[in-house]
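Marked as duplicate of an earlier ticket. Keeping the data here for the record.
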Amino acid sequence: MRALSLRERIFLFILFWLCIIYLFYNVFYLPTQEKILTASQENNQLANYVELVDDKKVSSEHLETMLSVVQEQHYKQQILIPNDPLLSDVINLIEEIAQKKNINLISIVYRDNDYIDSDELIKNVSYILSAVGNDLELLDFLNAIERKERLIVIEKTELLWDEEETARLNIHLTMFYDNNEY
């Protein structure tokens, strides 16, 4: 078998990176964007429906049943993408998970998003978390964050060890909130 020429190696290198980019875009980026858009649209529809039902006085029994169903759906959407950033709730949520998983939080740093257009329907809030603990506990902590009902995107994770073999986990994550005023 002959060795690959320089041109062939460069072509394979470029092809490899194009495949990586294609997979990232189709497997991670597009599904997340579709989920955000769908959640925002459902949130708007439910809010409009609640407003419509509140304005009309129709048969009270049927209306109350429908209103309770719509309010429950709207509540679930509010958990997924709330109307406000709810910074204190986010910190409480993360601290609660850390306590349950026996993790020591070192810091929770709010990251400013300068590139966001103020007219966007869905805005995001980014954080950098640092936590120390056993590497298996840190992995369990990361999984618990991913399983939460609120829409959370983990952008980057770093697992580092110091001289005493203590594991430190740095997580860059983004949470979303609905910028609509109903």
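See parent ticket for discussion. The first strand starts at residue 104 and ends at 111.
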